[in-house]
Amino acid sequence: MGSIKIFFITIFSGLLIASGLSASNVEVTSSELINNAKEYDKKEVIYSGEVIGDIMKRDEHAWINISDGSNAIGVWIPFEETEKIGFTGQYKYKGDIVKITGIFNRACSEHGGDLDIHAKSIEIIERGYEIKRNINFYGLIAGIVLFIIAMSLSLVIYSKKL
Question: Options 3.10.450.50, 2.40.50.140, 3.30.450.40, 3.30.300.30; which CATH number does 24-130 get?
Answer without folding.
Answer: 2.40.50.140
